[in-house]
Every structure is written in C-alpha cells, then in structure tokens.
Amino acid sequence: MNARLVAVTGSQDWPQELAYIVTDALDEQLTKTRPGATLLVRHGAAKRGADHIAHQWVRHQKANPSRPDVTVLEDPVPADWDTCAPTCKPDHRRTRDDGTTWCPSAGHRRNPEVVAGVHLVLAFCWNDSSGTTKTIEHTRRNRINHRTWHAYGPTRPR
Questions:
Q1: For the whole model, what pTM was predicted?
Q2: Cβ 44 vs Cβ 107: under 8 Å
Q3: What is the CA radius of gyration of the chain?
Q4: Where do the domains of the chain lie?
Q5: Which of 27, 37, 89, 123 has the most Cβ atoms closer than 10 angstroms to its Cβ?
C-alpha cells in the first residue's frame, strides 16, 4: 500500500477548544500526501482528547474529503485497561465509578505500539501529561520523526 503513516499521540485532557491545533496538523499531513496515496492516521483510541479529535478528523475526511485524490484511513490502537503487566505492583489498580478496576499503566504500555513504524508522530501534550511526555521521550530515543505541541491550562475534572 502506498501510504503515509502518521501517529497522533496526546493527552486525554487536550481541550476541545484547542482541537484546531490537532486538525491543522492533520490537514498539513494531508496536503503532503501524494495523489493516489493513503494517509493512515494511527492513534490510541481514547474517547476524549487528542486521540478522539484525530478520530473525528478522519470521520470528517471520509464524509467530506478535502482531498478526493487521497484515501484517509485510521488505525486505532486501544489500550488494554483490564490487563496488568507482569511488572505491575499489587494493589495498584484504580476503580472506575461503576466499581470495576483498571490498570493505570496500560496506556503507557500501549504508546510505543502507536508510534512504531510511522513516518511522523504528532504529539499534543497538555500540562506535561506523563503518558504523552514518555511517548515523546520514546520517539526521541528511537529517532522517530516527531512534532510536538505543548499547551497549559487549568486541570479539568475527568
């Protein structure tokens, strides 16, 4: 497949008011994609923040393509929040409102998979979030091309 593979990584708290920063970055990648090629957008499949904004952008491009000569697809890579790693400490799990528990390291374990083998990583870091910061460090250590946006503001309740 003749594809340009771009990963979006970012804070789940990246505010909707700043969605234009994510969509502008994706628009730029779309412009750089050759006619007849595919732009494949990989993201962490979070239900909010930068991942969700990327998902919405892909859906919008499929419904209203701004470049009909380019196919836009997504490759969501969700974290397995229910499964712990062998290195997880006992009693580290957190409890959801419905009483079920989840492993807080699942996103950190998934993030290297999101950026593996891509042409470019677009990273959107809100208030120096730990998951995004660690992913940016991973891209630097592994010499993966990346662009990073940092934004700061009040912490929002989840």
A1: 0.92
A2: yes
A3: 16
A4: 3-151
A5: 123
